[in-house]
Design goal:
single chain, 176 residues, mainly alpha, 63% helix, flat, disordered N terminus
């Protein structure tokens, strides 16, 4: 009976577009313990490592185009900034609900695959996985700081978005 309850949501998911996303995510969720044993590491994009080294570096930021290019590189690594409206994906309410159900199911699989590890926090510390996880989070935070700094610099230089926040309208014409 318990297995039937677990399989029912999977059967519903197989009928929708989220099934493909769910299927590709099952492997990653099931192999989550590899992260805990530091056998698999999350990739840190170069632009985030550069931001971590010096988030307030002003070299080669003389023109709006170079600021915009740097913001674009950070957007590719971090995703859209909080000041940008979400891109319309054309999905229906049912599709968004199916995506949410698929995400919840993947989270449950990931939790189940990592919960069986006794002393998980100690294993993460001893293998270096916890240190790497902190490094990833530090690089993400530095990337966000750099993007905010660049957009502030873009406002100062009267640049149009993406070199400045989406709400900013340059006075007159933007600089180059």
């Amino acid at each position: 009976m318990r297995r039937l309850l677990l399989l029912a949501p999977l059967a519903l998911l197989s009928a929708c577009a989220a099934a493909q996303e769910f299927g590709s995510g099952v492997g990653a969720a099931a192999t989550a313990p590899l992260d805990d044993f530091n056998l698999r590491r999350e990739y840190i994009p170069t632009v985030l490592l550069q931001a971590e080294a010096n988030p307030y570096d002003r070299r080669n930021l003389n023109h709006c185009t170079t600021i915009a290019a740097e913001v674009t590189r950070l957007n590719e690594a971090l995703g859209p900034d909080g000041d940008e409206p979400p891109a319309p994906d054309g999905s229906t309410l049912g599709e968004r609900a199916a995506d949410a159900a698929a995400k919840a199911a993947l989270d449950a699989i990931r939790d189940a695959s990592t919960d069986f590890i006794p002393g998980r926090s100690w294993i993460r510390r001893l293998t270096g996985a916890e240190q790497h996880s902190r490094h990833v989070q530090s690089a993400i935070q530095a990337g966000r700081e750099r993007r905010a700094f660049l957009k502030g610099l873009g406002i100062q230089r009267n640049c149009a978005p993406p070199a400045s926040p989406a709400w900013f309208r340059p006075r007159g014409g933007s600089q180059r």
